[in-house]
Amino acid sequence: MTKYSFLITGASSGLGLQIATEALKGGHSVVATARDPAAAAQSHPEIESLGGSWVQLDVTRPDTKDRVAEIVKEKGVNVLVNNAGYGLLGSLEDISEEEFITQIDTNLFGTMRCIKGALPHLRSLGGLDSGATIVNIGSIVNLAAFPACTAYSASKMGVEALTETLALEVGTAGIRVVLIDLGIFRTSFLHSFKKPEAGMAEAYSGGAVDATVNFLADLAGKQPGDPVQAARRIVEIVDRTGDHPLTRDLADKGVGKYLRVPLGSDSFGSFAAKIDSLNEVKSSSVFEALAKSTDFAP
């Protein structure tokens, strides 16, 4: 089996920590990043005991690109997992412009900075046989809209669009790009959701925004998704091991076959519903006639 070298952002908790653990158990090398690597190493000694290492990285810093470029070259990284991020929960009206910008800066611009830092090294590895891979962690909000998730959805939809276009730009260089549309998994993510400093305006009390906030608060600790299984699947998608049908399909059809991978039954359900909605428009003669009516006459 080919051994890979992972750089995983936001690895001090949640899915990032689980991906690091599963990759190390699979015999791969891992550089796990955290804003405070000393605290992360103390809280999660299993990473170093399994052979991994911690490095300091804050994806919101302007020197992120240079820092990532240094790490991937020094450590011989061929797999970048962009996992760092957080959620801001509240109505668009209640979220300040500064809070909205910070959400985008972390989730979208942070991903962009890491990719820009890693690309020159990944390109130098020489094609698909090198295992050069970028994994971006998306979200179920890419597939279904949820009240109170305006800023978070905007950041993750940005990651989705970036990923789709990036795959076209770097695929010819033999760099594989994968988007994981993640459902709701039992991590600390819901416990760490941020809310607008302004609180909730009276206009939203008792409405859809309020209901979503309460639903997610009640769901914390009872999420349907198992993060260990999600991490295992992500590692298998990268290294094409294991006995899962998708892994075999990747091996048979080539690593570039799939761009988007939904994980979680809730994510797959939203994925299917989105396709049905788009197919309804596609099959509608009314929509087709309306669209074509805006072209210049032949």
TrEMBL record:
<dbReference type="InterPro" id="IPR020904">
    <property type="entry name" value="Sc_DH/Rdtase_CS"/>
</dbReference>
<dbReference type="InterPro" id="IPR036291">
    <property type="entry name" value="NAD(P)-bd_dom_sf"/>
</dbReference>
<protein>
    <submittedName>
        <fullName>Oxidoreductase clan</fullName>
    </submittedName>
</protein>
<keyword id="KW-0560">Oxidoreductase</keyword>
<comment type="similarity">
    <text>Belongs to the short-chain dehydrogenases/reductases (SDR) family.</text>
</comment>
<dbReference type="InterPro" id="IPR051911">
    <property type="entry name" value="SDR_oxidoreductase"/>
</dbReference>
<dbReference type="GO" id="GO:0016491">
    <property type="term" value="F:oxidoreductase activity"/>
</dbReference>
<dbReference type="InterPro" id="IPR002347">
    <property type="entry name" value="SDR_fam"/>
</dbReference>
<keyword id="KW-0521">NADP</keyword>
<dbReference type="Pfam" id="PF00106">
    <property type="entry name" value="adh_short"/>
</dbReference>
